[in-house]
């Protein structure tokens, strides 16, 4: 019984640390992005976007999963971009960034030793926000397109009413 209790505490601690790390310094957590999308899209469109044949809870879980994967990819890409900036010759970097060094541009403490971490978090946060804006703008455009003739909208985006909205948003968010 004691081992089970300790195991549960460790598992809870790991789960909590992973959940906090997902949001971290990159702004909103995936769950926060999904709550904002749910509020802006409405429950029906949110479900159509993430789980056309599943439940509302399933849609929220799929949304969180999608945003967590995107956040991880954005973080990886941001780290690569920051390493590339850090590796630039200082004269080139200063010329491209108003005479500031990498540490001066991104560093937020006295010695600018946190510049790399701040670079990664700012680039990842920006990428996450841009992806969220693309999704919401695409959803808004799809709602407007669907309003006048729902049958034509369904025919254009897949033939099934349950997944037409999701296909529309997916296609519009990739092209913008």
Give a short synopsis of this structure.
By secondary structure, the protein is an all-alpha fold. It contains nine helices and no strands.
Q: What fraction of the residues are assigned to beta strands by DSSP?
A: under 5%
Order of helices and strands: HHHHHHHHH
Overall mean pLDDT stands at 84
Number of domains: 1
Q: Kindly, what is the distance between the CA atoms of the first and last residues, rounded to a whole number of angstroms?
A: 55 Å
Features:
single chain, 176 residues, mainly alpha, 9 helices, 80% helix
Describe this structure in words.
By secondary structure, the protein is mainly alpha-helical. The chain has one domain. The chain is 80% helix and 0% strand. The chain is built from nine helices and no strands. Helix 2 packs across helix 4 and helix 8 crosses helix 9. About 12% of the residues have low confidence.
Secondary structure: elements and pairs:
Elements: H1 2-23, H2 30-41, H3 43-50, H4 56-87, H5 90-96, H6 102-106, H7 115-146, H8 150-156, H9 161-175
Helix pairs in contact: 2-3, 2-4, 2-7, 3-4, 3-9, 4-7, 7-9, 8-9
